């Protein structure tokens, strides 16, 4: 656990990214990704080899439209939108078919935080049915007061999504917990503490620059919370 010198204050709420923070995304995404390109080839919308899966994983945390611009930049907008549809369809069926995983201790840690009275939320750049589907499949949905997704709220950035969440639920102090630079930005630009998750390894070394604390396992959140000062 790496911390800055700033003493943390106990938050009223914690806001979690989904992919690479709560959910071990590659357990679902990799098989769905390969199937998606098989389908695009069948539909004559894509030719050639499937782009490297590492490229897709490096885009986690981005909005879908930005992901396809990076993964299949030479394809038309129509192909990108069809890829959106297929990915959602394949991921939702994959949640039932594949053996997908949360990161270790996620459910137990969320339950402990909830028992301590922390209000729990999700803020993800993913699609609504995907984000809610992951939470429901892994039996953590009831622990969250709200699950916000860019797909549902049509926000242009995670900064806007988190601002909407804070406003809608009257939250004044929160820890933003995530693994990408978009999570750091969303926390900081909304005046909140940022806990960077350094265990997923999808981003580069600079992704979490600016975080108040870096954690290497999810269950460190309980210790951090217990050691934090009571808010005045």
Spell out the key features of this protein:
232 residues; alpha/beta; Rossmann fold; 2 domains; two-stranded antiparallel ribbon; 9 strands; 14% strand; elongated; MTA/SAH nucleosidase
The CATH topology of the largest domain corresponds to: Rossmann fold
Q: Provide the number of structural domains.
A: 2
Radius of gyration: 18 Å
Structural class: alpha/beta
Give the strand content: 5-15%
Quaternary organisation: single chain
Q: What is the overall shape?
A: elongated
The string of secondary-structure elements, in order, is EEEHHHHEHEHEHHEHEEH
Distance between the termini: 25 Å
- Annotation field: number of helices: 10
Q: What low-confidence regions span 5 or more consecutive residues with pLDDT below 50?
A: none
Q: Helicity range of the residues?
A: 40-55%
Largest pleated sheet? 7 strands, mixed
The CATH top-level class label of the largest domain: Alpha Beta
Which CATH architecture of the largest domain is right? 3-Layer(aba) Sandwich
- The chain-level mean pLDDT equals 93
Number of strands: 9
Strand order of the largest sheet: 1-9-8-7-2-5-6
Give me the CATH superfamily of the largest domain: HAD superfamily/HAD-like
Explain what you see.
This protein is an alpha/beta fold and 232 residues long. Helices cover 45% and strands 14% of the residues. The chain contains ten helices and nine strands. The chain has a seven-stranded mixed sheet with strand order 1-9-8-7-2-5-6, with helices on both faces. It has a two-stranded antiparallel sheet with strand order 3-4. Helix 4 runs parallel beside helix 6.
